[in-house]
Design a protein that fits this description.
Length: 172
């Protein structure tokens, strides 16, 4: 499928069944990886946003961009994916309930990230050792910072606008 006007190369409108391929480790938000095959390029371009699956090397978004510079970095990684496995229509699929369900599984996610770090940090392959740093960063983000982001994202999904300074964010 072709990209819609204004959407960078690599981000395409996927049929709804593509959302079903969304990697469970993607942090809820507009961007996600689903069936990527980027040959370990994503972390070279967006190391604070992209991490690799441990088994197949598929990429997923472990931290959503928060500003234009971060979005450009992530889009640079997206542009390298020959399978067009990234998408930016997450806001059309995530709901406050799905975000809360995802958050309840954070223990499983943290266990995965810690195990990946332990395995790859001692690897003979430099790329795996570097990716272990991403796994450590993801585990740390789960512990500190991710909940606040998700509370803001749940507000966004419910109201379709960012919360104002005096507004209370919803609970997870």
């Amino acid at each position: 499928m072709a990209a819609r006007p204004g959407v960078p190369r690599g981000l395409v409108e996927h049929p709804p069944e593509r959302w079903a391929e969304c990697d469970w480790r993607n942090v809820p938000g507009p961007f996600y990886g689903a069936g990527t095959d980027n040959c370990w390029m994503g972390r070279l371009i967006a190391p604070t946003h992209v991490l690799y699956d441990d088994e197949w090397g598929a990429e997923f978004v472990y931290r959503q961009p928060r500003d234009a510079a971060q979005a450009l970095a992530l889009l640079g990684a997206v542009a390298q994916d020959p399978m067009a496995g990234y998408a930016c229509d997450g806001d059309d699929h995530w709901t406050p309930e799905l975000v809360r369900d995802w958050w309840r599984e954070r223990g499983r996610l943290r266990e995965w990230a810690v195990a990946l770090d332990q395995s790859w940090s001692v690897s003979e392959r430099a790329g795996e050792r570097e990716a272990a740093a991403g796994a450590r960063a993801y585990a740390a983000y789960i512990e500190d910072g991710l909940a606040e982001y998700l509370r803001g994202y749940v507000f966004w999904l419910a109201e379709r606008r960012p919360a104002g300074p005096a507004e209370t964010l919803p609970s997870l």
